[in-house]
Structure prediction request, 71 residues.
Amino acid sequence: MDCLRRDSYTAANWRRLYDIRDCAARDSARSAAPLTMAADAALLATSALTIKASVAKAIALVEARRATRFE
Prediction:
């Protein structure tokens, strides 16, 4: 995302980034239904990937999970 590249930060982009981090921290720390990653979840980091590569990785994760699900 262009708004998160170091060389393109603006005040608005910094504010957006801090808002996202604050929201995630609040959601993760709340007492009722905290936002947490499921034990069997797969983390797909896409920041350094193209859309095509991201989709390919997502499909590979799903296919790998489906292959082991019924063993």
Notes: Residues 40 and 65 are 10 Å apart (CA to CA). The mean pLDDT is 83. The chain has two domains: 1-36, 37-71. Residues 1-36 form one domain.
